[in-house]
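Reply to dn_fold:

You asked what the input looked like. This is it:
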Amino acid sequence: MTTAASTLVPAVLSLSPTSFEAWRRCRRLWRDRSALAVTPTNPAEGSAHGLYLHRLLHQVHRHGSCHDADHVRHVLAGHGADERTAAEVARHATRCPIGAHPVGHEVEWARAHRGPPVFVATCRLDAVWVHDGILDVRDYKTGQVLEHPVADDPRAWLQAWVAAREADARGLRLRIRYEHLAAEVTDDPDAWEPTPEELASIEATLVATVHAMRAEREFRGVSDDVVCGACSFRGGCDDSAVAASPAWPTPAGRAAG
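and this is what came back:
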């Protein structure tokens, strides 16, 4: 069935790292998650710990330093942290810049493109520091390490484009770093300092993406085993290459089905 794009795409589009990456992965996924905010049929598991760790690190830095062992122990105890979480916080402390000026944690920034086309790019950054002439943007990761450089990750492109304006306003170089905290990840990918040419290319890509979003009519799925197998909306997608029945949460006291 063909759906009119005008009923899905708002007058001023908002792009986030998640929605931008979803569009590039599968247009049906973008429609369901970002444009229509459909309830996932097969919710992904494992995200709760990552959110918990992010908030815990926020508390550690908000009230002290991750390099202060007594302070860290107090925060961890107050939030019921287990051994895994304590090890991840300790791993972070070895990567956290000593003496850096904190811009903030869970920082929300936005940057508008005045057009044509008009759109707004937004992102929530886990931590932002200033040190050594650098605006250091950190993205905490608790899952598997990337199989490609940070510079090849579409989510990092949007983060860089938004943060570049903030770096320029401060007269600083911009650095994007993915900080992997899981114990089984032995090394972080190399940090990325985007060049002016790379930032111009990202802006051109964002512009082309918004044009494509406005022109799209079909929103077909990609029918790929890997993509569909990890998709939280595959249970309601006619184009899914992986068979899946909807698995919505069942209210307490009511049998599934």
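The chain has a mean pLDDT of 88.
Hope that clears it up.
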